[in-house]
Amino acid sequence: MRISKLNDEHIRGIVCLTQGFIGGTADGKHSVTLGREGSDFTAAIFANCLDAEEVTIWKDVDGLLNADPKRFADTVQLPHIPYSEAIELAFYGATIIHPKTIKPLQNKGITLKVQSFLHPDHEPSLIDGGHRKNDESIPSYIVKDNQTLVSISPRDYSFMDERNLKTIFEVCADLNIHANMIQTSALMLSFCFDSNEQKLKQLRANLKDGFSVKYNEGLQLFTIRHYQDGLETDFIKGKKVLVKQGSRSTMQFVLS
Fold it and tell me: Dihedral (C-alpha) 65, 69, 72, 73: value to the nearest 10 degrees?
C-alpha cells in the first residue's frame, strides 16, 4: 500500500504500526531496502508523504547529546538546533541520527523530536528550521574509528589542480568511497574514509598509472564542531596527530 493512502478519510486518525527499512519502486514491481539503521529515515519518509507536523524518534539517551556518553564524560543535551546543524553532525559521523533523515523533514518544515524511551518525561531535543542564537555555545565531539588515510600525489609532480582532483574523485565516486575529511596541498590530496580493504585495493589499482598512493590504516578521525582552543587536549593526549585542519566552526584531527 502506498503511504499516501494513510491520508484517506476512513483510515485517518487510526494508529498504524508498520515496519521500517523496506520500500518499493514506483510501479510496485520490485522491493527495495533503505539500508542499515534506516528506521529513522523510514519515519522521515512517512512524515513527508503524510505532511506530518512532527516526528519523534526514540533513543536510549536523553535527546541529542553533544558527544557519545560511552566515550566522553559530562555530555550535555543539545536542546534545539536547526536542520543545517543536524546535517553537519550526521555528516561528520554523529550516530544518533541517520544521515538521510533530515532532508525529507526539511523539505516540508517538519519538526524532529529526539526523545529518550528510558526517561520519557525528559524534554526532547528539537530539530527544525529555526536558528538559535546559542547554537554555537555548545561544542560537539564526534569520533570515527577504523579510518584509512590516503595521500595521493601526481607521479609527474604536476599541481594537484582541478584536472587531477576530477580524476581522483571520479574514481572515488565509482568505488562509492565517501571522504570523511579532505585536505589538499600543491602536490598532494589526502582524505580519510571508512576502512575497506577491497575499496583501498581497487583505488590504488585505478590510480597507479598517474599517481603515487600512500596510506595509513587503523586510525581515528576526531571532529569538534564549534571548536574552542584546547578542547582537543584530553582526547588526543598520547596519540600521534597525522593531520590537523580547521575552519571557522569545525576542527578535525586524524590520529594514530
Answer: 100
